[in-house]
Amino acid sequence: MQCLPKVQEHTHNPQAVEPAADPWVSAFLQHLRADRNASELTVRNYADALKAFRRWFQEHAKRPCEWARLDTFHMRAYLMHLTGRGYNRSTILLKMAALRSFYRWLIRAERIKHNPLVGLTLPKKIRKLPKFLTVQQVEALLNAPLADKAPRHAFAVWRDKAILEVLYSSGIRIHELVALNDDDVDLLGEVIRVRGKGKKERLAPLGLPAVEALRRYLELRARTARGPLFVNQGNGGRLTARSVQRLLKKYLIAANLDPSLTPHKLRHSFATHMLDAGADLRSVQELLGHSSLSTTQIYTHVTAERLKKVYEKSHPRA
Fold first, then answer.
1. Which residues make Cβ contacts (< 8 Å) with residue 45, sequence separation at least 6?
2. How much is the pTM?
3. Are 167 and 267 in contact (CB under 8 A)?
4. What domains are there in the chain, each with its CATH number?
């Protein structure tokens, strides 16, 4: 089966056909949504990766891309193309992961018999140790909304305070935060219901400062109807991830911290501080919503590096 309709040579335009025109790609993307519960971000990234490969193949081979007729030589040539274009390893691995997942599905769906990616060696992913804030830096950041001397409405002050407290207290991702609804919050039980990657739900505990900040914010919001938890002051619409990033940058500057730090650094800080305080790795994995323990283990390297530095600085014979 061809993944593109026949195109006359004099009208050849590889950018003119979108992935939706390919029935195999469309069925695969639907499989990701329905059977794998993949997030829309994952679906979009995989769709873009397949589209990029198909465009490259058309330009490279001067003919339509037929998924069933591709072989390892085509995949190796594409990998060399990505490397030659200067893409970083993470981007290359994402693009190749989309192709691998697609071909595995084609095999299971019995649409093809041969997987051209079998035996192809990919570059190893370099896992950088995640950056995190110290406990003192986190304290300064969390106190920044209340320390702001500029005249502001109490609603915005306590909303921003609640956002920062919840991010650090629960270790949730920014997209999980902005997706929270009123019904997801149990202030009495001091937990929130979080919808993570793959639409998996988990309960995340809240510390007392986060509970108090949420209570103050909700009192000032004074809305009776149930809906989004964190909203704009003006129109009452759900806050976006970009809005949270902007307010975080503002408070990082106020706390004399690096303004380029992302909300994800609070998640890194949460995990690192939990392990430093003696939490077991499996519990931290569940709190973070990681499907694999190996993903969580990166934080043990952070803790080990920190302990090594303390040892080298403190031990007389280090």
1. 94, 98
2. 0.60
3. yes
4. 9-108 (1.10.150), 135-314 (1.10.443.10)
Residues 6+ apart with CB under 8 A from 174: 167, 241, 244, 245, 262, 263, 264
Could you tell me whether strands 191-195 and 201-205 are parallel, antiparallel, or unpaired per DSSP bridges? antiparallel
Question: Where is pLDDT greater, at 248 or 297?
Answer: 248
Contact at 8 Å (CB) between 204 and 191?
yes
- Mean of the per-residue pLDDT values for the chain? 84
Query: Cα(222)–Cα(59) distance, rounded to whole angstroms?
Result: 58
Query: Do 154 and 217 meet the contact criterion of CB atoms below 8 Å apart?
Result: no
Q: Which two tokens stand for residue 166?
A: 């919840």
Distance CA 258, CA 248 (A): 11
CB within 8 A of 44, min separation 6: which ones?
A: none
Token couple for 46? 């995989």
Q: Give the CA distances from residue 71 to residues 133, 146, 161, 165, 253, in Å, rounded to whole numbers and listed in that order.
A: 47, 61, 55, 51, 52
Element (H, E) at 164: helix 154-170
Task: Give the pLDDT confidence of 192-204 residue by residue, as tens digits.
Answer: 999 887 778 899 9
Active site residues: 173, 197, 264, 267, 290, 299
pLDDT of 3 over the 90 cut:
no
Could you give the CA distance from residue 58 to residue 217 in angstroms, rounded to a whole number?
55
Most confident segment among 82-91, 95-104, 278-287, 298-307: 95-104
Confidence of residue 12 (pLDDT cuts 50, 70, 90): very low
For CA atoms 26, 30, 33, 38, the dihedral sign is negative
Compute the distance between CA of residue 236 and CA of residue 243 in angstroms, rounded to an integer.
13
